[in-house]
Specification:
This protein has 252 residues and is mainly α. The chain has 2 domains: 189 residues, no CATH class; 62 residues, Arc Repressor Mutant, subunit A (Orthogonal Bundle). The protein has 12 helices and 2 strands; from the N terminus they run αααααααααββααα. The protein has a two-stranded antiparallel sheet with strand order 1-2. α2 runs antiparallel to α3, α3 runs antiparallel to α4 and α4 packs across α6.
Length: 252
């Protein structure tokens, strides 16, 4: 009984709740995930300590492949929630606290959600070399491109500002982008112009030639086809009409 009490006392490792400043629903979900992990760790630690004190082994507490698979998804959920909350410092602490289970170690080097989490932490810590290495370590799905492209650019901007000792202007940033293009791991290879992809511009251009004054229904259709908003579509048509009028006036 004394061994049991001692083991129980040692096994309890408190995990502080997330601060109230975080968003409500994300905070509640994160606290629930952390509480589940805390309970699992308490049981595992308690069983291991009792077994060690009695000189026996308890196979039940050895992680099975299915349990490790659950643990990996559990880690992904917590990392995603912490990133969504903007609590990057705690995200870094959580990644460092993960147990050295084979499945988790493999996921940290291969799972794109966890690599992205590591990249976010590296950027926050100013460890740009690690950030670049993580981004170039594997090809990421399109859902991660925008976030990782932003990190890539901001990191290179930060390095350029540190080297020059002053903030970068628009021309400076353009030169940085030309010098450090996106790696193929976070870029589909399609050229962008004026913030729109070329195929998006082609779709808008073809529609403009048919009708330079699309009605609201047509704007919504084009927005769905190009992954833009109706407002963006309307602004593109407005700007295009202005350019055409200016060109026509110039040649009169």
């Amino acid at each position: 009984m004394e061994n049991f009490k001692e083991a129980k006392q040692v096994a309890v490792i408190p995990i502080s709740p997330i601060s109230e400043s975080s968003s409500g629903s994300s905070s509640a979900a994160l606290n629930n995930l952390l509480l589940q992990r805390q309970n699992i760790e308490r049981i595992r630690n308690l069983g291991s300590l009792i077994a060690a004190s009695r000189g026996i082994q308890i196979p039940f507490f050895t992680p099975l492949p299915a349990q490790q698979s659950f643990a990996v998804q559990h880690v992904i959920n917590i990392c995603s929630t912490l990133e969504d909350c903007g609590d990057i410092d705690r995200l870094g602490q959580y990644l460092w606290s993960l147990p050295a289970l084979p499945a988790i170690l493999e996921a940290l080097s291969k799972n794109e959600f966890l690599i992205r989490a590591r990249a976010v932490v590296a950027f926050k810590q100013g460890n740009y070399r690690e950030l670049y290495a993580l981004i170039e370590s594997r090809r990421f799905s399109n859902i991660h491109h925008a976030k990782l492209q932003a990190l890539w650019l901001e990191a290179h901007y930060g390095e350029a500002e540190a080297a020059r000792g002053r903030p970068l202007g628009p021309v400076d940033k353009y030169r940085v982008r030309k010098k450090h293009p996106f790696p193929s791991t976070i870029w589909d290879g399609e050229q962008k112009s004026h913030c729109f992809k070329e195929r998006t511009r082609n779709t808008l251009r073809e529609s403009y030639l048919k009708d330079p004054y699309p009605n609201p229904s047509r704007k919504r259709e084009l927005a769905e086809a190009t992954a833009l908003t109706p407002t963006q579509v309307g602004n593109w048509f407005k700007n295009r009409r202005q350019r055409d009028r200016a060109a026509a006036a110039k040649h009169r």
